[in-house]
Design a protein that fits this description.
Layout: H1 2-13, H2 15-46, E1 48-49, E2 55-57, E3 63-69, E4 79-89, E5 95-98, E6 106-109, H3 121-127, E7 135-140, E8 151-152, E9 158-159, E10 165-176
Antiparallel strand pairs: 1-3, 2-3, 3-7, 4-5, 4-6, 4-10, 7-10, 8-9
Helix pairs in contact: 1-2
Catalytic activity: [protein]-peptidylproline (omega=180) = [protein]-peptidylproline (omega=0)
Pfam families: FKBP_C
EC number: 5.2.1.8
Amino acid sequence: STDWIASSLTRRFGLGAGLGYVGFLAFGVISEQIKTRTEVALEEQGSREIQDGKETVLPNGVRFTDLVIGGGASPKRGDLVVVDLVGRVTSTGEKFVDTIGNKRPLVFVYGAKPYSGGMCDGLEFALASMNAGGERRVIVPPALGFGERGEDFGAQGRVDPDQELEFVVQLRKVSISP
């Protein structure tokens, strides 16, 4: 770990080398924080609200309407993606997942399955053309939702088998997976 490296450098090259290494680590942490804040500012700066968004229908039946066009990067397979979402069963309006507000966002590796926390295959298709900072209303057909098995989210709710789902998804961040 870093303690071993710093102590080895200190023994071999003196106190200056150990302190230099610690300074190098501190510089890396600070520069990463500045980079992250700059990325967030650029995403927010490039985002714009849509007044009368047109509904787009994908060949697989997923429908979406943009509410906010993001100014950041689009997710690629293997990227770490941070999203906030609210999911409802279309027929009943029952909410089964909600990460917006003071709850924790959903973080996952884009294109890696299985998903958890309210994600389904249909939502991934809608995320493919989004940019970070964007928001979209998505309608997912039963086959690309939770299908014949349904899904139980415990205290948050349940999705019965073969239900059409409606999501409002906010793509917060897209970054290279660690």
